[in-house]
């Protein structure tokens, strides 16, 4: 595999009109950090696997652990992170807690990511 370097300008010239326009439209720094943290959640293969499962069906921790070949403790840990980032939600039915994707945005993010890497 060949490394590709980013190409640079041959001459240093800034385009102040574009810089000024973009600077005025940039999100606040706290928003940028929150967005970076949001995407960090997708940097863990186990969490992505859990999200892919929950794309297909609502499941309890026991079923997720069995399906993914992991301990319930490990699954619970990852679900806690996903819930903190508002990617999953849960509901209780008797003694069982079921997890599902928090909303349609999560499905869209995963689907678009899959489409991107398939190109």
Automatic annotation (TrEMBL):
<dbReference type="InterPro" id="IPR011991">
    <property type="entry name" value="ArsR-like_HTH"/>
</dbReference>
<protein>
    <submittedName>
        <fullName>Helix-turn-helix transcriptional regulator</fullName>
    </submittedName>
</protein>
<feature type="domain" description="HTH arsR-type">
    <location>
        <begin position="27"/>
        <end position="119"/>
    </location>
</feature>
<keyword id="KW-0804">Transcription</keyword>
<dbReference type="InterPro" id="IPR036390">
    <property type="entry name" value="WH_DNA-bd_sf"/>
</dbReference>
<keyword id="KW-0805">Transcription regulation</keyword>
<keyword id="KW-0238">DNA-binding</keyword>
<keyword id="KW-0105">Cadmium resistance</keyword>
<dbReference type="InterPro" id="IPR001845">
    <property type="entry name" value="HTH_ArsR_DNA-bd_dom"/>
</dbReference>
<dbReference type="GO" id="GO:0046686">
    <property type="term" value="P:response to cadmium ion"/>
</dbReference>
<dbReference type="Pfam" id="PF01022">
    <property type="entry name" value="HTH_5"/>
</dbReference>
<dbReference type="GO" id="GO:0003677">
    <property type="term" value="F:DNA binding"/>
</dbReference>
<dbReference type="InterPro" id="IPR051011">
    <property type="entry name" value="Metal_resp_trans_reg"/>
</dbReference>
<dbReference type="GO" id="GO:0003700">
    <property type="term" value="F:DNA-binding transcription factor activity"/>
</dbReference>
<dbReference type="InterPro" id="IPR018334">
    <property type="entry name" value="ArsR_HTH"/>
</dbReference>
<dbReference type="InterPro" id="IPR036388">
    <property type="entry name" value="WH-like_DNA-bd_sf"/>
</dbReference>
């Amino acid at each position: 595999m060949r490394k590709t370097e980013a190409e640079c300008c041959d001459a240093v010239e800034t385009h102040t009109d574009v810089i000024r326009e973009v600077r005025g439209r940039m999100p606040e720094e706290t928003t940028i950090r929150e967005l970076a943290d949001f995407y960090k959640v997708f940097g863990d293969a186990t969490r992505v696997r859990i999200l892919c499962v929950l794309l297909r069906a609502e499941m309890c921790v026991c079923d997720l652990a069995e399906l993914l070949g992991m301990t319930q403790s490990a699954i619970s840990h990852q679900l806690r992170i996903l819930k903190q980032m508002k990617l999953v939600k849960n509901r209780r039915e008797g003694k069982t807690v079921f997890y599902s994707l928090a909303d349609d945005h999560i499905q869209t993010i995963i689907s678009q990511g899959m489409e991107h890497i398939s190109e």
